[in-house]
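Retro notes, structure queue

What went well: the backlog is down to a handful. What didn't: a couple of records were mislabeled last round, so from now on we paste the full input next to the output in the thread. Example, using V-type ATPase assembly factor PKR1 from Pichia kudriavzevii:
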Amino acid sequence: MSNFLVRLWDAIFLPGTNRELEQATHASFALLTLSLVWMLYTSRSIHFFNLLVISLCLWAAVAWFLTELKKEKAKLKSNGELLAEQEETSLSSSSPSSPSSQTPADSAESAAIPPSKGKTTGASANFKD
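Corresponding output:
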């Protein structure tokens, strides 16, 4: 039990999720649901029913988000895969004349804007060449 708490404490300060954090989240929601059901049973108040519905909807949304996060995490590439892909693309586009090797800044510079006919406006009008 203490090992679980230590791993949970460490998981709080790391980006992403892990098994301990998910288990703690589900346990917290289960205990919240249990306490709201007990309060609903003892008091028969509509307020506890409303809180129970809200907490169950929130639990369902969190569970859905965690499953979607796991799906997306499976699609992510590792750093090694990204580096290999980057090296592969840099080797395949080594010729400088190919248009695919231009960066967006290069292509923006090559699409030259026609010079103005001696008229300057704005802040550049105050400076002389």
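Agreed that this is the format going forward. Reviewer comment attached to the example: The CA atoms of residues 82 and 88 lie 10 Å apart.
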